[in-house]
Amino acid sequence: MKFFCVGRNYRKHIEELENELPQEPIIFSKPETAKLPKDRDFYIPEFSDNIHYEVEVLVKIKKVGKYIQPEFAHKYYDQIGLGIDFTARDLQQKLKKKGLPWEKAKAFDGSAVVGEKWFDKKNFENIQKINFSLLKNQEKVQKGNTSAMIWKIDELIANISKYFTLKMGDIIFTGTPAGVGKVKEEDVLEGFIEEQSVFKVNIK
Fold first, then answer.
1. What does the alpha-carbon distance between residue 151 and residue 12 come to, in Å, rounded to a whole number?
2. Do 203 and 187 meet the contact criterion of CB atoms below 8 Å apart?
3. pLDDT tens digits for 56-113?
4. pLDDT tens digit string along 150-194?
5. Helices (H), strands (E): how many in the chain?
6. Bridge pairing between strands 77-85 and 196-202
7. By CB neighbour count within 10 A (0-12 exposed, 13-18 middle, 19+ buried), where does 108 fall?
């Protein structure tokens, strides 16, 4: 299983971090060890003082694909989920200033929350109009709709498969909307697709 993550796929998030608008999808990966084990708390790592939450819609790949064309991409997935891409923002900024890769800030152990609930895409009238949100201590801190994606799900699958072979069980994090922020000990994060709770994470 591989995790492919998309950076800067929502304009308002790009603006809040004062980043440049990319000309093509920004893709990075997380190893399997990045997945936060089921029912496990997230522990703030000792190497960062500024861990940010980033809630994202997930897509689970159901069969092997390479050089997938956008018009056929819908055949390669049928499940939609929700997760968090935890980011060591302070470390990421240091790495970016030096022109170095982001892996230490994005792919560390436990940095990928994958909700246990998955939804058949047929349950949605339009997968490009899915509402999702994140609550921190019962206060809504992020809300988004997949209609605001710069690159849509099928476009992302086509782009990623140009460089990497997609296999059954691979998961794509499709990008986060505005509202990212710092977590602290004893915070509780809960993610929703439409009105359904998909995951809850305690911060330690």
1. 14
2. yes
3. 999 999 999 999 999 999 999 999 999 999 999 999 999 999 999 999 999 999 999 9
4. 999 999 999 999 999 999 999 999 999 999 999 999 999 999 999
5. 4, 14
6. unpaired
7. buried
What is the DSSP annotation of 81-102?
A: EEEEE-EEHHHHHHHHHTT--S
Q: Give the neighbor-by-neighbor strand order of the sheet with 51-53.
A: 87-88, 51-53, 181-182
Residue 185, amino acid: E
Residue type, position 179, single letter: G
- Cβ neighbors of 46 (< 8 A, separation 6 or more) are none
CATH of span 3-202? 3.90.850.10
Bridge partners (DSSP) of residue 135 are 140, 190
Distance CA 132, CA 144 (A): 5
What residue ranges do the domains of the chain occupy? 3-202
